[in-house]
## 1
Amino acid sequence: MKLKQVLATVLISALTTFGMIWGYGKWNQKDMYAGQQATQVPGNYKYAGYNDDGSLPPGPVDFTIPAQAAIPTVVHIRTKTNAKQVTNNLGRRQDPFSDFFDDDMLNQLFGRRNNVIPEQRASGSGIIISSDGYIVTNNHVVEDADEVTVTLSTKKTYKAKVIGRDASYDLAVIKIDATNLPFLLYGNSDDVKIGQWVLAIGYPLDLETTVTAGIVSAKARQLGLNKSKAGASAVESYIQTDAAVNRGNSGGALINTEGKLVGINSAIASPTGFYSGYSYAIPVNIAKKVVDDIIKFGTVQRAYLGISYLDVSGLSNEEKKANGIPESAWGIYTQDVPKDGASYAAGIRKGDIIKSLNGVILASGAEMQEQVSRYKPGDKVELVYNRNGKDITTTVTLKNKVGNLEIVKKEKLVDLLGADLETLDPKKAKEYAISGGVVVKKIKEGILNDQTRMRDNFIILKVNNKEVTSVSDLNDAIGDNKQITISGFYPGYEGLYEYPISFDNN
């Protein structure tokens, strides 16, 4: 064999052997790593903060800087609700035995009941959001309170005024008379990712400032907590975390590692009433719109799509079939589209499946609620919906609750009583030996008719134990209190009578 042939044979053999080894190595690597290359890092690792070579960045996450920035902005809120006397709602004529027996004895003899709800005190947390003293907290922290006080991290205490509340979102704004206060910057709750670190800051169990850490474990959670007070208008799309939160944390801050506000801590999932694994916060992107509306308009400017719907993700295959929904469908199924609503005007009809709003994919009803809650009546949003397997894009001009585009003015609760009211004539007041009052001249359709047995000509003396001497006083005393007790008397009848009233479902 010639030398050339020998060399060629050797070269071919070497190449073949090398190729087999290389090929086995590639096959074996593919089998072990499912196609991954040792020198490459998948995008999710880069996104999670890993270096290009797959190593973690040096040093642990440091919570001290964001905690130090946020602690001075989180306040301790204490509330007091005055004792209330609750009696039957029936006026009684002058009792022939009243000259011989006092009211307590008459109550015992004739079974009359005078129940007293004792004074109640509670506490929660709040977040300073402006240097001039505006504070955001939960509605349930200040609801029904007759007095609200705020204590800063410096131990300085202020009396606070409730600017406005909204049970649908479980949010409230209060204000203290102070300037140059530290305040917490808004973050972006849309940027919050499952698995990222967050800190919960507040005053749990009546303790001093407490900081706990956890990770975001879910988004757009619905718990049904607000429905008991707000009904169908309730909005819930909670950030779920495993940061320890207890009673008193309500209204406190959930911040990211940059020290920015991403949520307002509001609830816990617990069989005992104490932290047992999960806590829930209102996304800041919802809260900041509610806060701005309350400060600017006195009430939240809620926008409506004008649909009733089913969350496709929560339906079984049988339920999908019953509603004519394909098994593979996802999104928001429109059950009904009123003709006077915003969606109907934009061409959406019953059976359409809404898939996105302004480019945000809508996988659940909670996500849709969260997105719509960011807009006010008159705003335009782009919807993508599916009809008969075809995606269609339309623009919806959102409307308010009554079906128009106007800004909703703050409703005076006194107007919901449903009565003709008149300041008591000073001569009559002198005759009754009182400083003044409000005469309920005529009861019409409204809360007094629906919830009480009050009769015409009742004279109002107090609201929640606050003296009322004029219609203006009555309006101020009611304010934004959704739970009140009206006290007064009937001319010609003996005794004071009280009528508990709720504005929550009106």
Note: Residues 79 and 122 are 5 Å apart (CA to CA).
## 2
Amino acid sequence: MKTLLPLAQFLVQNLKKADLLWIKNFLTPEETLLFEKILVAKYQTDIQAAQEVFNIKSNTPRYQKIKKQLSDKLYNSLLFITPSVKGVPKEYDEFVELHKTGAVLNVIGYFSRRDLYMPLINQSFNIAYKYFFHNEVLFMANILRLYYGMTEPNVSKCKYYTQIYADTIDYLHWENKSTLYYESINLQFGKNKKVNKEMMVIEIEEYLKELHPFENKIRSFKFHRNYYNLNMVFHHIQNQYHEVIEYCDKLLDYIETIGFPSIVIKRNTIRQKAEHLVLLNNFDEALVEVEKILSLETEGTSTWINAQKMLLLIYMNKREYLKADQITTELLANQNYTKAVSAYKRQIALIGVYLYIFRLMHIIPGYQQDQKSQVKKYMNEYPEFSRDKSSMNIPIIIAQLLEAIVLKREGEVIDRIDALKKYSSRYITKSDSIRSNCFINMLLEVVRNNYHIVAIERHAKKYYAKLLANPKLTSDEAAEVEFIPYEHLWEIIMNFMKHRRNQDNRW
């Protein structure tokens, strides 16, 4: 029943009413009864279904036979489903249809009905060839070359399909090899950002040397996608962001050249380009790319929300905090926001925390005397953050300290400073967190020097110089944790304290 119930539900949800009625004509009365009953009652066990529908036990041959026959017929009915879904690329629909055709061809071929076989295979071959579905091309080209070589001899057609067959074997070889290489690298880099990059550079370089000669020879979308993506990773881990963008453009140009849309790949490549433009501080160009993503997406989808998150990051880096605040407000009000990927929501909420602190500082309007702490709200909504001992915890720790300083909560300031010292010594090493180390030490100087501006600037000078000597561009961690560059945040803090000093002698 664990399989039969979701299968029945899937068919009802995706089949046209006319197709569903037609399929029911092939069900026995008992199969029809079981089919309709499980949809209404949503039985979770065979024991329950057998008892309530037929008043028999689930292990009886009769029930097992009914269930087996119904299941077989429903699985066969999957071929009636038309996969067209809004937002799904056309080639994906064609891919599903080709696989359905392949199943039909195998059945027809078993009975040696070439009169039925050939019209269908000729039509399907053209689609498979157009969309680079090489496994399907290989299957059909082999049949066509044999047909025109022996059954209905035609020298030119036999030669044509034989050449395609031979070429496709070669394409598949390099397509599969490039896939294995890219998946291997992606697995290593995706799971462990602290992987030995020097070794990875050597490994990718070997792969690229092997694949490069075939860049302009292989008729394969997958090959080019993998080859260009490998180049992107290769340059990314060396902080060569201009080169990453170059290969993003190459892949986008290739997508346009092949003549059919690959929306998912296109969107992901544009996202990559936008992210690296941000890393290069080319924010205006990044905005153009994000707008392209939004034009390809339906409002409220997970990808759309991620693109909005990128807009937030861009505006935070451009110091356009009011725009960032407006986007955050609109996102939180979107009815689909709660369904978004948790990681996106967490990042957006964290940006919201800093915008709240900026309201407290009167950097953006909206300050309320009785405004509830967004820091505490964030910690309550994402308790896993308090247990996170990675660098991703840094922004919220800084936010906690800033809130305490702005609101003059002396006890909390001391507590946060102590926590910051412990966290820094335990979890932030000089090797992988230079910028965070510098900024944390600058914050510590704020309290050590009792908020005395001149003293703070004097003692924090060496850390600030080191921060400037290690720009965000060269730091992998910075790309993840610095949605507000530390240089900007330090300037904001110092300006706020100077303003506060003018109002309160202590500050």
Note: The CA atoms of residues 225 and 265 lie 8 Å apart.
## 3
Amino acid sequence: MTQPAACLAVLGTGSDVGKSVVATALCRLFADRGLRVAPFKAQNMSNNSGVTAEGLEMGRAQIVQAEAARVAPHCDMNPVLLKPVSDQGSQVVLNGRAWLEASGRAYYQRKDELFAESCAALERLRRTCDLVVMEGAGSCAEVNLMAGDIVNLRMAAHANAPVILVADIDRGGVFAQIVGTLACVPQEQQARIRGFVINRFRGDLGLFTSGVEWIEAQTGRPVFGVLPWFRHFRIEAEDAVVIEQTRAFTPAASGEAAIAVIRLPHISNFTDFDPLTGLDGVQLVYLHQPQNLHGFRAVILPGTKSTRSDLDWLAASGWRTRLLDYAAAGGHLLGICGGFQMLGERVEDPHGVEGGAGVTDGLGLLPVTTVLRAPKTTTLTAFTWDGIAGQGYEIHMGCTDAPAGSGLVAVHRRNGADCADTDGCVAMGGRVLGTYLHGLFDEPAITRRWLAGIGLGEVVVDRLHGPAARDRAYDQLAEHTATHLNLEAIIALLPPQLREVRR
């Protein structure tokens, strides 16, 4: 019988400390050494998700890590995905399919069942590779949640995985983060934490030498390295905290053309717009507080996990009036997934898919009505827009039918099966567009087509865009990480048979 793959766990002192990025870097670095690598996160909480070749849903962060490892994403890499629909509840996606809607308390009561499912997924994954890079969630030292933990130290113990603990120096208190985490971890688990990575350092690294020495003296464990903050390349983020925009933005003041994305309370799949962030001459901004939209070349309504609730928020906050005024003045709007639904005349929920049954008025800018209903659509979708081929993915509850002749794109294939369909809708002389397609801007020619439609045809969209740009970023991340971490010390945590360079 083949020996199951070894495991290495990357856990954190808190949320958004950089676990995902460090795990992504290790996936690329170990893949570059000739190892067959697979990422794994037992439980992910994010509305940023994607679709596998099998038409199953998983967290976007593990899709990114699979890309970095140069392997196809599979839902075994993220068996439990929590998609928040409110402050108190989430949709639970189990093994790639929507499973139940649960409050935090109800979810906690099923933790043993979910832990067993996660262990089974990990063991299946271990039969396909040499090394599994495991990622934790939040802090691994939440003492009130440890008994039901399925993703941090309990899972690391199940896999017999050595743990690298990631801390974020930029938020301050890095010494307390590390020492406090160790103090909160049960004694029998402390030995599993083998060393630390300090992330997001700014300034002269030489000034932190005494800090490294103090941490190592206090804990008896090595600091594997200090990672400087990087801004010259971009890795898709998992958490929406990276897109917060608290102040109004005046396009004319920036000196560049500006595109706005409305930062909805339940925003999902905001990484759709990453290809627009690195373009010369265009500035992409996320707006939460209502403001005058005059001067923006386009406004995007992104995906949302709770369309009706976010429509209510648009009305109550004042955004509805601002958006309608912008459209009436000749502005360009694009709605993706939930944003597409919002642009329509109404959203009907006869079975209470998003909570209580009912109907919510949309913005009325597209001649469509959406009916929310199960099952969830999860597809990889091949399409053409004005003859330009692209591939995206769909994740949505419900159906939105556009009048004949008003569709945005022609759909040729879903989950590998040929079809002859349309998606989306166009109205108001081409100024208002809606589509269910995520990943729309991954294809450079599609991006050029849309930019030309909003009067930015002069913007250069080079060939390193979308997947090609992401792959280059993984190489840059790996080089950055290898420069600043003691990679040999991390390799020494692996079984002897994996320590040799194979390439």
Note: The mean pLDDT is 92.
## 4
Amino acid sequence: MGIVNAWNALWEPNPRAIKPRRKREYAGAEVSRLTSGWVTSTNSADSDIKGSLKKLRNRSRQLVRDQDYCKNAVRVIVENVAGTGPRLQAQVRMARGGRLNERLNQQIESAFKRWGYAENCDVAGKLCYSDLIRNAVAAWVESGEVFIRIVRGQKFGDSSVAMGLQLLEADMIDEDYEGKAERKGWHWKMGVLQDEWGKPKKYALLTRHPGDTFFVNQPTDGKKHIFIDAKDIIHLAKFERPGQTRGVPWMASAIQRMHHLEGYEQAEIVRARASSALMAWIQTPEGDLEGDDVVDDERVFDMQPGAIKYLGSGESVHVPDLNAPDGQFEPFLRAMLRALSASLGISYSTLSRDSSQSNYSSSRLDVLQDQESFKALQAQLREIVLFRVYKEWLEIAVLSGALQLPNYQTEPERYQQARFMFKSAGWVDPFKECQSNKLAVESGFKLQSQVLAEQGIDYEEFLVARKNEIDLAKQLGLDFSDKPNTSPETASKVDTTTNPQEDDET
């Protein structure tokens, strides 16, 4: 029986062998020796932001303040997004025919331009409208968000429009405030009162900047907070996760890299200075401490080029090898700047101003990609800030009598139509770009107005200026075509009796 049992056991199915295998998980979720130190969380967007926001803002500002690369990064984004400031183009059309009403549009644009002077639009009277927008974009990048307060009912400067703007740094909205909600379902989160849908209702505005520690005697009304209605606040931020309340500095993911780059640069500078400093040491037989580097019987060494130091008896100098391998710093620098450019969403060549490793094709590709990124940011700026400010200003201008717009109260949408023109993007190769646009217009793939709009030029203004230019050229008998104009008509307009000497004097 023993042999039979052994034979049966040999051919009996192995339960362990036929046990169904565990369903395979994602490799990215696998826990192993290599991923044991990978700490993650299931926090919400605001929970992740809350504990790090102040430190991220302060570190980002320090890098922009002290490091050339980060400072230039902010400058590049401001120049390409805001440029010299957006230019308003009112788009009011005729009630019949749909043509643009040039008279009303000119009236609106002139009034808005006058209001845009620093003493009229800025409550502090420091920034004109274009500079205010540029500063807002800079704070948007550096701090991750910026707030613009609309102050109604008060005239600033000599403007007849009772409205001004106040630019608020992100610190002014107290992210630590947690007060009592006014209604059921509402709640305070990071200084913002939200309804049950997460829509902002009020903002907890500090009466004094939390960093104004050197100006404790600054006058206040005794309150720490004032609560501003959401209709009076424009919040410009990049919300990258659903439910996110506050913005995060754009350089957040590259902050540590740029800090290490700063330290690496300093170390390289010290090494280069030390390795280039030619020094000599003199050892005396008596062993007495002599020389200018002796203070209170203690030797103080200052590594200066050309210095001569005295050593006592038995003393020796050990100088470490300061000759680092050549060509290591520049590749490391490029790698760090590529990380920074990826964090900001712009190309390395645009950020670093380094085109040594680029050709026409790669440069054009970088320019096209950057233009798309900048257009997206301009669209966000246009929708959140520019249209909002323009609509508020237009309504107050009509109510105050600064603008006379027929039937505005019954059809405000007709008057609120507008465009905002930004500066044109540069061309990598003007000749090729011009030829490409010319071919696209002639083939019908592009409108001439579209080509001009890409260059920041108003189409109607261009046509008027072009007509005036052609009329003046004809009046003077000039022809700027490729071939010289030798027609009898043009020749007859030239005064051949004029004294050449008088022409020179003229």
Note: Confidence is low (pLDDT under 50) at residues 484-506.
